[in-house]
Specification:
By secondary structure, this protein is an alpha/beta fold. The chain contains 3 helices and 4 strands. It has a 4-stranded parallel beta sheet with strand order 2-1-3-4, sandwiched between helices. α1 links the parallel β1 and β2. The longest helix is centred in the N-terminal third of the chain and has 12 residues. The relative contact order is 0.23.
C-alpha cells in the first residue's frame, strides 16, 4: 500500500506523517503540499497513491473528485508547529492514526 500525505505546504504536517508511516510503521509514504505543487505533479502523485491522507478535513475538497475514493482524513488541525518532526505534532499524529484505518 502506498500512502500520499497531503497538507497545505507539504513541509510540516505531511512530512511528519510520512516519516511516521515510513520509519515507524514500515509503509511506503510520500509527503505533498496541495498549494506549492503543479497540477501535473499532484496528478502523478494521486495516481501513484493507493491512499491519500489529508491533514485537515477541509483539505478533502483539494483532492480531485476522481481520487476522493482514496482519501482518509487525519485531522490534526492547522499548522501551529512551524517545522516538521516537532515532538508534539508527532504525538498528535500518532493518536490520530489510531482513528484512521491504515493497512499494508
Amino acid at each position: 500500500m502506498k500512502y500520499l500525505c497531503v497538507c497545505q505546504g507539504g513541509n510540516v504536517r505531511s512530512v511528519t506523517l510520512a516519516y511516521i508511516l515510513k520509519y515507524e510503521r514500515g509503509l511506503d509514504a510520500l509527503a505533498c503540499g496541495w498549494e506549492p505543487n503543479t497540477s501535473e505533479t499532484k496528478e502523478m502523485l494521486y495516481n501513484w497513491a493507493d491512499k491519500i491522507i489529508v491533514m485537515e478535513a477541509g483539505f478533502v475538497n483539494k483532492i480531485p473528485e476522481t481520487h476522493r475514493s482514496k482519501v482518509l482524513v487525519c485531522d490534526v488541525g492547522p499548522d501551529r508547529w512551524g517545522h516538521s518532526m516537532d515532538s508534539d505534532l508527532g504525538n498528535v499524529i500518532r493518536r490520530k492514526l489510531d482513528e484512521v484505518s491504515i493497512t499494508r
